[in-house]
Amino acid sequence: MVLxxxxxxxxxxxxxxxxxxxxxxxVVDRPLARKPxxxxxxxxxxxxxxxxxxYHVCLSGTGISLSDERRHAAAVLDAIVGGSASSRLFQEIxxxxxxxxxxxxxxxxFAETGxxxxxxxxxxxxxxxxxxxxxxELTDIAGxxxxxxxxxxxxxxxxxxxxxxxxxTSNRTVRLGRATVNGTPLLPIEEVLARFDSVSAGDVAxxxxxxxxxxxxxxxxxxxxxxxxxxxxxxxTPGLRTKVAxxx
Length: 248
What we know:
The protein is α/β, with parallel strands linked by helices.
C-alpha cells in the first residue's frame, strides 16, 4: 500500500496516524512480483462486429516507458497529433472536413514500455479517408515538417494544463502517489516546464518516425461490417490484412 497526501496536512502528524494503524507491521521493500516485458508484441488486427451507426477504430503501437528521457517530447508529439482542439487530427478531420465528431490521439507510459495511438469514430463512407488523413499527418510530422507555431502551441497547452491541474488537491495527491508506485523521480514543476520548453522540432519528428511507423501499428475496430473495416485498414497498414483476430 502507498499512502499519499496533499493539502492542509502536517507530515509528522500524517506519519503518526499511519504508525498508529500499522499494528506493529514493518515496512518491507519487496521486489516486483511481475516479470518485466521481454519484447514488444507483433502488430495485429482485431474487430468486433456490432450494429452501430459509426465505426470506432484505433491505430496503436508500442510507446516509451516512464523512465525514458524522451517522455516530455512524447507529450508534445501527442499534443500536436491529436491531444487538443488545435491538433492536426482534430483540425484536418473534424473542423475542415467534418468527417468525424470524435478524433484524438493518446499516450500511456508504464514501467518497461508504453503505448501510443489514435482513435476515430466515423461513418462507414468516411472511414478510409479518415485513416488516410491520419497516417498522412503522422508521415508529415515524421518527415520533419513540424511548424514553429504548432510546436509552441503544443508546449503552452501542456504547460497550462499542468499548472491548472496543480490547483486540485486530488491531482497533487495522485502525482505524489504515482511517482512513488512507479519509482520515477518527482521532478520540480519548474524543471518539468523547462523540459517541455527544451523539446525541439527534431525531437518530435524523430519520435514520430519511431512510434508511428505504419508497419508497427496494430488496428482494432468495432462496427457493422468487418470487410469494410479491413479494406480501410489495408490502405494504411497493408501487412495487417492477414493477421485478423476476431474479438469476443
